[in-house]
Specification:
single chain, about 950 residues, alpha+beta, 5-stranded antiparallel β-sheet, 14 helices, globular, disordered N terminus
């Protein structure tokens, strides 16, 4: 049996030095910013040349005669078929392409108020690129305590197949159980990265069938690629089916090309591209914001909920590949298996993957990824998943995961920013994919080793300027939405560098194409980030790639709109106007000379003695080349250009219309129209309207140390981002919902409260009417330096488990060692067995640092004849004044698994969000310090 524990994918190999195109009559050269409708206008119209340019480009993409979509309505990676880069055929598609489609249709919804295309894009994704249950049938057999069997990666393809190694331990997957509970299914909701839209390869892994239908199948087919280490380029891959039923390839299908095992089982496997799923969330955020401004939020609410669900599963990319502990992993066997969050690096890694046995049989696996690339980070998506209620995932720990991820991503950019301003490659928790020892002196980020070319080396993964623009554009959006000072500082340095390397004329432009890196960053110090004086970037060559230029324009535009940097706005305009000179009937593009197409004849490594066949009959053996296992390429209308080159002629030139690039060009015009032209050309945020004032502020509960408040939600022309709660004139805290508990107060003391609403652009409402509250007198039950907050993690009070969520808050003025604290949750055992089991399913301080036991009372009390006692080891650490322990997910059952009846239990409550709980008691050094015992 083979359960592959590795998988790879990549996008956008660099193509440097695009040639000049013949000029096309410009449409924008004389267009200048002018005062137009506010960017927050409910419905924009084509009343400026840049909105007109967006609609013109959009209509070219949607014109069926131009060939961007298949008969099923699936967007192709490229209109042209002969193209080899990340996908190795133009009429494959990627999750990247889908994510740009979502984004394009969101922009169209803003301009036209028509949201049908946006919803249609999501429906198409669910039908074709998000695997259904039929396509991933054995997830019910997945064991979160044993996610996958370790398989080392190797730097060279000739080291494959790689042997399974069960002697290396994997950690625990903390997500599966809560995802199952949240969505009622063991299936993973994420996009598989690669789809053979016209079934050119002929595997016939038709979405929704779970089958291998062969070359005669019409329509799209799932496909896999990239399985063999960092040096495996697109020219060295052996594409394989996602559902391998051994119909093609060799005796064991394609499995034994990659994994060495004693026997092989028919199986399925999928790989997710986290940057694409994060971009889908990003697009959904803008759709929600724009539709809300139009009063159309309900029109897209179902699609936005799908994006939130996708963001829930996207958290697999935040974890180490085999769920090992993060930091200083330099040997696969001594690197400890993780539990809870100690295997979470909180960065968007290169992939996550999942698979299992065919025919529902017996086993399934999941992996994260140990390596994070700067080009994949998305702080805007992390912020939205953590702060926008409509995009908050259902799982109880998702919001906190994304909140932590947001901060970690911003630190990642700071750590990787070169002295000049460009962002270097990334970091890994598993050097060479083997948890190996990094080079001596290699700097670290939270114990993860610096890697200037993370994930793949042919070509080096961070040498493409496009990754700079894609990534920094997300930082710019986050800065535009929140005004975050760290994001602004990163952008200011990057924009200054990129601008200095850019030249624009009336009819052409030159931007960086290929980058070179020297030196390295300093080891990360969160309290004192360095300027990385030893880390440098230089530009190897320049080009005029219009897709990259579009992402660059959007970065400049969002930054200029928020910061007021007129030079950045002017450069964005100049680039847009120059790009217009490269318009053709299908879009805006420049010719590319493809010297890399000499590699069509490159050998593809196949182990000696292995032989098989592709679905069309092409032999696969140790003599195979890229073209020999893709003989169908010789029927492509553009093949004679390549053959002439292989015969000794000049390198061929192509004008490609990649979907992502053409969509981004359209959006660049729309963003400039919205934020610069629509805002009067002077920068600014565009949104200047504050939310309405919160109403009906009321006191919902008081204790001797806390006051709980509720109020009626505000409204906003774009969307309410949250609320600030003031105690007198002092900010007491913030909330994203319409309730808040102010803690750490004095007993028998009066307080006055007001609430202000705020939107994403930073506009703040006037204060609500004040409400007064008086805390209760000391109860005598202990008012020491801690309090306990509780939430109910189980909505069924009569099932066979009790699942309290607990949180310890230090309400004192000094540091509190958690090892001195114990908690008691009081309950009745009812009938059934008298012995109990207790588990900690998750704890922010580490489940291994939490102790639990069930104690029987010698004399039953009202609502309790037992209590669950929760304690902490020294490894749990200490809480600073005002800090809390984070989530602790406890679980209790009887040894015979008989049912409880919790409704009359002393500590039981029905709240599903954390709130102060005086019926869950806390003790410091054995002395009651919080709550009242029954």
């Amino acid at each position: 049996m083979s359960a592959p524990g590795f998988s790879r994918r990549r996008f956008a190999a660099a193509v440097g030095g695009a040639l000049l195109a013949a000029a096309v009559s410009p449409t924008l050269a004389s267009a200048a910013p002018s005062a137009r409708k506010s960017a927050t206008s409910p419905r924009a119209t084509a009343d400026d040349p840049y909105t007109t340019a967006f609609l013109t480009q959009y209509n070219k993409i949607k014109d069926s005669a131009n060939g961007y979509f298949s008969d099923e309505g699936i967007p192709y990676h490229c209109v042209e078929t002969l193209i080899v880069e990340a996908p190795d055929h133009g009429h494959q598609t990627t999750s990247e392409t889908f994510s740009f489609w979502f984004w394009l249709e969101a922009t169209y919804g803003r301009v036209t108020a028509d949201w049908t295309p946006f919803n249609n894009a999501w429906a198409t994704a669910e039908k074709y690129i998000i695997p259904t249950h039929t396509d991933q049938p054995s997830n019910g057999s997945y064991n979160p305590s044993s996610p996958a069997t370790y398989i080392p990666e190797w730097p060279d393809v000739n080291k494959y197949p790689s042997a399974l190694d069960s002697s290396v331990s994997s950690g625990q997957d903390p997500l599966a159980t809560e995802l199952n509970s949240a969505y009622g299914t063991p299936d993973v909701y994420g996009m598989h990265w690669l789809l053979d839209v016209d079934n050119v390869y002929g595997y016939g892994n038709t979405p929704g069938t779970g089958a291998e239908n062969g070359p005669s199948a019409s329509g799209p087919s799932y496909i896999n690629s990239y399985q063999r280490g960092a040096q495996e380029s697109v020219w060295e891959t052996i594409p394989q089916p996602t559902t391998d039923l051994f119909k093609y390839g060799g005796t064991n299908g394609y499995l034994d090309l990659f994994v060495k095992d004693s026997s092989y089982s028919q199986q399925w496997k999928y790989t997710n591209a986290p940057d694409a799923d994060a971009r889908a969330v990003q697009a959904a955020y803008w759709a929600y914001r724009w539709a809300s401004a139009q009063g159309n939020a309900s029109a897209i609410s179902a699609s936005v909920a799908k994006a939130a669900k996708m963001g829930d599963y996207l958290r697999y990319s935040l974890f180490d590949k085999y769920f090992k502990k993060i930091g200083n992993c330099t040997d696969p066997k001594s690197c400890a298996a993780g539990s809870g969050r100690d295997s979470e690096h909180y960065l968007l890694a290169w992939y996550y993957a999942w698979g299992g046995a065919e025919n529902g049989g017996g086993w399934a696996w999941r992996i994260g990824d140990s390596t994070a690339h700067q080009g994949y980070q998305n702080p805007l998506a992390a912020w939205a998943l953590a702060n926008v209620p409509s995009l908050t995932p259902k799982s109880p720990t998702a919001q906190s995961d994304w909140s932590t991820s947001l901060q970690r991503q911003l630190e990642f950019y700071q750590w990787l920013q070169s002295a000049e301003g460009a962002i270097a490659g990334g970091a890994t928790n598993s050097w060479n994919g083997q948890y190996g020892t990094p080079p001596a002196g290699d700097p670290t980020f939270y114990g993860m080793a610096y890697d200037w070319q993370p994930v793949y080396h042919d070509p080096p993964s961070n040498n493409w300027f496009g990754f700079q623009c894609w990534s920094l554009e997300r930082v710019a959006e986050y800065y535009y939405v929140t005004g975050n000072a760290t994001a602004k500082a990163i952008l200011a340095k990057w924009v200054a560098w990129a601008s200095s390397e850019t030249t624009v004329s009336a009819t052409d432009f030159r931007i960086p194409a290929t980058l070179n890196w020297t030196g390295q960053p300093d080891t990360w110090n969160a309290s004192s980030p360095s300027g990385n004086s030893g880390l440098h970037v230089s530009v190897v060559d320049y080009g005029n790639d219009t897709g990259v230029a579009a992402a660059y324009v959007k970065t400049l535009t969002y930054y200029a709109a928020k910061s007021g940097d007129t030079a950045a706005a002017d450069l964005a305009k100049s680039l847009l106007d120059a790009m217009a000179h490269f318009a053709d009937a299908k879009g805006i593009t420049t010719p590319e000379t493809r010297t890399d197409y000499s590699r069509f004849a490159d050998p593809v490594y196949v182990p000696s003695g292995w032989s098989g066949k592709m679905p069309n009959g092409d032999p696969v053996n140790s003599s195979s080349t890229f073209i020999s296992i893709r003989s169908w390429y010789k029927q492509d209308p553009d093949w004679p250009k390549v053959q002439a080159y292989l015969n000794g002629g000049s390198a061929p030139t192509f004008s490609y219309h990649r979907f992502w690039a053409q969509a981004d060009i359209a959006m660049a015009y729309a963003v400039y129209a919205e934020l610069i032209v629509g805002a009067g050309g002077g920068g600014g945020t565009g949104d200047t309207t504050p939310p309405t004032v919160p109403t009906n502020l009321a006191v919902s509960a008081t204790t001797d140390t806390s006051v709980s408040l509720t109020w009626t939600a505000s409204t906003d022309d774009v969307g309410v981002a949250g609320y600030d709660i003031y105690r007198g004139g002092t900010l007491a805290g913030s909330a994203v919902t319409t309730s808040f508990t102010d803690s750490g107060l004095k007993a028998s003391t009066s307080y006055s409260y007001t609430v202000k609403a705020k939107d994403a652009a930073g506009n703040v409402s006037a204060a609500s009417s004040a409400v007064n509250a008086t805390t209760k007198a000391g109860s005598g039950g202990g008012t020491g330096t801690v309090k306990v907050q509780y939430k109910n993690n189980d909505s069924a009070p009569t099932d066979n488990q009790i699942k309290p969520g607990l949180r310890v808050v230090n309400t004192g003025s000094g540091t509190l060692a958690l090892s001195t604290v114990t908690l008691r949750y009081w309950f009745t055992g009812d009938s059934g067995a008298s012995s109990y089991g207790a588990w900690c399913d998750y704890a922010a301080v580490g489940a291994s640092n939490v102790t639990q036991k069930v104690v029987a009372l010698s004399s039953p009390r009202s609502g309790a004849d037992h209590y669950l006692e929760v304690g902490f080891t020294s490894g749990a650490g200490s809480l600073a004044a005002g800090a809390n322990s984070g989530d602790i997910q406890s679980r209790v059952s009887k040894s015979d698994w008989s049912n409880f009846s919790e409704s009359d239990d002393y500590s039981y409550a029905t709240n599903t969000a954390y709130a102060d709980a005086t019926k869950v008691t806390a003790y410091v050094n054995g002395t009651l310090a919080w709550g009242t015992e029954p």
